Amino acid sequence: MESKNYGHHHPLLLLLNEDQLLIVANCSRCGEVVSTPCFSCAEECGFYLHKVCAEAPLEFNHPFHLDHPLLLTQNPGYPTGYYCNFCGKEEDKFVYHCSCKLDFHIKCALFTFNIAENNLKELDHVSLQHPLISTENGDKKLKDVSKCFVCWEPLAKYTHFSPDCGFNLHEKCAKLPFKLNHGCHCKHSLVLQFNSQRFSCKICGETCRKGLGIVYGCSPCKLAVHIECVSASLDLVVEDKSHEHPFNLFPRRSSFICDACGTEGICAAYICCTCKIMVHKKCTLLPRIIKSKWHDNRLFHKYFLPDEFRSSDCIICHDEVDPEPGSYCCSHCNITFHVHCVTEDKDSYSIVSLENEDEMPNESSISVIERNDAGEATKIKHFKHMHNLMLSPFVGGYENSCEGCMLPISDPFYYFSECGFFLHKACAELPKMMDVWHHDCQEPLALISDKAFKCQHCHQISNVFAYECCGCEEKICLRCVIALTPDALTCLKHEHPLFFYGVHKAKGKCNACGQPRGVFCCKDCNFGLHLDCFSLPITAGHKCDEHLLSLTDHDDNSYSESHHCDICEKSRNPNIWFYHCAKCNTSAHVGCVLGNYPFLKLGSIYEETGHPHPLTIVKKKYYYPDCDKCSKPCEDVALECSKSKCKYIVHWDCVAPSSLQSRSKWPMLQFRCNHI
């Protein structure tokens, strides 16, 4: 049967049965796979339309947005696609657009219209899923990611329609009253509407959800209330598993400070009469114990901090934690976190059940053989080395490198002189297994050694100690593990402590390389460093000078002719760090001194399958034999046969797998490129 063309240049046929739909095709208006009833081009040019999309009005007034009509258009005027303000998904097909920057998929605009009209016949045959069943079935993606398109609470939190219907929707949200009276705003009724002006919620004060979903609002008074906050205020008694007493609803018109999180609340407060505390509804659900990526030990929620925590800063935002309202703390380390800081990212922590409250201690990497009178371990056995190690204070020199992190020995260290093994005291005391906040996988990390790897964070190639994830097998070098340990850090080139802010919160440039956004920043001044710049060796050797070169943060010589690199003979920016010998007045770019592989242990053995003998990692200083693979001189790190009669030598880059080759614009290249 022929039909109107709906803007198409050929007549369209109405298909009612799936048997008539001979191919898998997409609707030309909404972009989704078509199903019957639908229209197809009579000339078989590949044009298809859902019947709903074809009959969608070109303009209509939506009950949730009475300010302006919604207009159906193919191009709302954006340079790229648009995001639907109901489901949040990106699209570049037809859109219902409003001049106040609201955009909706065709099906989302019509679906929400039917919600307002209480006409959801399309959901009559959709199966319901209960939260207990969804959780027990282990649907982690549904539990943690999927949100209801109306209230934007987790879909699995309440009974919901099967997502197969095309919409994430709680059963209760499909039956919301269009208008209601609420104690938080007695002047007018609250009406279900799109939060087109992105008002913050009058009850919880948050402006999250990016304007998605639906809220209860009052247009004359310009206010909004989240659907979940309205529902919360109707619960008279809340049982909280993390608190020993129930919380009772205490409606009030004035604001209050929540005793659980320390932030302001309005209207719906919940009180524990026994403990005399007042909290938000959402804070009655705060877990008592969490395992956070920001700290190695478990964190406990406390309503009042003990005396030992009375003056401390939050490890995440570095602002002071008020000891009066609730916070999360670690009793082992005497550190605290604001509740909103440590729980803001739902993927950054896991909840520890009360049955597993007792924490298993980290297993030490060392066995103590002897201690001095102060209780300090002076003789140890490390599980990654065959000899007993003796403690020695640092007395200067920097000639030796730590076998754990490959940085110069600049702190107290353990050693065995006969085999030339040196290990920083801090590296030796790291546990065999640990959890770290900066690794996405939830599995613990195990200490390994003598395996070539690329660090997940700094992308440097090394073959000494590392932590390997027991799940994804990603590896992190000890330099990054120590640098990213939650605490204030000291830098020899700066007088104040440095704190980790992350790349998204960091401001300004890195003081070492001049590139934007150093992640370690000073609270008191403008100083900042990248992760890899923070871990630069304080001294390094190079054939250009007989002495060790020292990492230098400023050039006192104002004569511009001296601002050059004595290795590559190119210009050097005096405002970024460089290596310098004060005795010989030698100066060089950081990258020129360190080369591409500064953390590969020279002299160690590397097993390469293409050669019958073990290969030794070397770096020739004066004589550069030709590579047996590419015939070019071996000027950088190379692999040389350990058998003296075999003259086999190859570049590291010629035989190492691509995953173990340096291709990143790490400080070496950054420092070379930042010329005047």
Show the helix and strand layout.
Elements lengths: L1 E2 L8 E4 L22 E4 L6 E3 H4 L4 E4 L2 E9 L8 E2 L6 E2 L3 E4 L3 E3 L1 H11 L11 E2 L1 H6 L3 H5 L15 E2 L17 E4 L2 E10 L19 E5 L4 E4 H6 L4 E2 L8 E11 L6 E9 L4 E3 L9 E4 L6 E4 L24 E4 L4 E3 L1 H5 L5 E3 L14 E6 L5 E6 L5 E5 L20 E4 L4 E4 H4 L4 E2 L10 E4 L4 E2 L6 E2 L3 E4 L5 E3 H6 L5 E3 L2 E7 L19 E2 L6 E2 L1 H4 L4 E4 L2 E8 L25 E4 L4 E3 L1 H5 L10 E2 L8 E4 L19 E4 L7 E3 H4 L11 H7 L3
Antiparallel strand pairs: 1-2, 2-3, 3-4, 5-6, 6-9, 7-8, 9-10, 11-12, 13-14, 14-15, 15-16, 17-18, 18-19, 19-20, 21-22, 21-25, 22-23, 23-24, 26-27, 27-28, 28-29, 29-30, 31-32, 32-35, 33-34, 35-36, 37-38, 38-39, 39-40, 41-42, 42-43, 43-44, 45-46, 46-47, 47-48
* Class per helix and strand makeup: mainly beta
Which outline best applies?
globular
From the N-terminal CA to the C-terminal CA, the straight-line distance is 75 Å
The strand order across the widest sheet is 24-23-22-21-25
Provide the low-confidence segments as ranges.
134-144, 664-676
Q: Mean pLDDT score, rounded?
A: 80
Could you give the count of β-strands? 48
Number of helices: 12
Strand content: 25-35%
Helix content: under 10%
Largest sheet: 5 strands, antiparallel
Radius of gyration: 32 Å
